[in-house]
Amino acid sequence: MTLNLTKQYILIFIFFFGTLTSCSNNQENKTKELELKQKELDLKEREISLRENEAQQKQKLKIEESTKKPIANNKNKKELRYLYHANGGIIGYFSDGTIVGCPRCDFCRSNIQAMFNDKPHSTYEVMSDGSLLINNSDREFPSYNDDNGWALIDYKWNEKVPQE
Known about the structure:
There is one protein chain. Helix content is 50%, strand content 22%. By secondary structure, it is an alpha+beta fold. The longest helix has 75 residues, at 2-76.
């Protein structure tokens, strides 16, 4: 009987010692788990801050691009510089050095606006004497004298454009 009692004490002691060590292991595991969760939280916070920084940088780039676009558009936007009209149609000389003709078109606002979308058929240069050198061969001398058909010379209108 004493032997059984000693066995029981030994078993109780082993069981008690085993639970103590498992409790300490559980405590270690919980601290490791908490450390891992803290590291995971730190990583998520870094990721969020990086995303916020990227979003701010994208916003800054969009703002910079939007402020630059009007300047670029103004440089690329072609304007009507000279306009000649006659019974045979109208001819527009644009600021980018191109010429667009509209044969059999009346001198009116809608036909002039349509010329902005038409394909150019020639090019020109403004010479020092104010004449226009067309395709490096022909010359035109725009002037407001005697109602000769020049409605616009160097961005200055001589005639009012009819509505239709």
